[in-house]
Amino acid sequence: MEPKPEQAAAQSEELPHVLVFPAPYHGHATPLFSLAAALATHGLHITILVLPCLPSLSAFMASASSRLLPISFLSLPAPAPAPAPHSPDLHTIIHSLSLLSDPIRRLILDLPSPPTALISDMFLGFTEPLARSFSIPRFTFYPSGAYATSIFHSIWLNNPPEPTTEPTGPIEPTSSSSTITISDVPSAPSFEFGQLSGLFVRYKRAERSIPLDPAWASVRDCWLWNIESHGRVLNTFADAEGEFLSHLGPVEQAGRVWAVGPLHMLAESGTEGEGLARAEEWLKGRAEGSVVYVCFGTMASFNQDQVGAMAMSFSYGSSSTERDRK
């Protein structure tokens, strides 16, 4: 039998209390909402710090209320500039979010039940020293996989120099001079410098200026604080990325690592099993090597024409492969 609302409220005050702080982007907030709901069904009281621009919030609040989950919401002031989807100025957004530290501190001090932990998005690294000031552990939430996270950690921690394209002597540099090898990540992947995280590439450009722009300093600090967090929570699973999950734990001498994905499968209706069964049935009906898995960044967005063009290109590629086999 489901508890009554007043019973749920009373019970929530007795539960371990976890603060959850999503980043204001759909690909970041939605999976963290799913995680928050799952934690709330396993004996935790959740308080979500809410920004005015937080996507999918209304639907999640309605769902949490209808399910009588021990989830409450605290409103934060809007940062300036306000986050905009697909903004090329992500560094200024990260900086503006970091300026919310004092308002968040005041909200935490006013809570009737002190928090026992904080889970915050990877764009919110400034919450690491904030959590330490309250002597509570902070867990960094990564909405994407362990492979990318391993590379992000390496480049921000080691800060490799930007390869020069200028002659350094009598011999012109070859094209390989722009290659960066991430030697401390399993398999030591190599990339052209421009293929690295766009945020990091732009940071290296900004690093040429002295003093460093405060917004870019906030970005650098954000990632370094993420690396120092008590633990990492990733939207992935061990069968797919076990090697990189292991790397993010003991190899980096960091806190514990939790693989909690794919979080979109934590459906409320209980039909996630049916969806998984249908997906498995479909995959089993495909020939080996005939299925292409495509993954875009958490802030990617495409219109109908772009999706159609991608589908056509994959269709053409698969047809060409089939002809080659014959």
From TrEMBL:
Family: Belongs to the UDP-glycosyltransferase family.
Protein name: UDP-glycosyltransferases domain-containing protein
Provenance organism: Amborella trichopoda
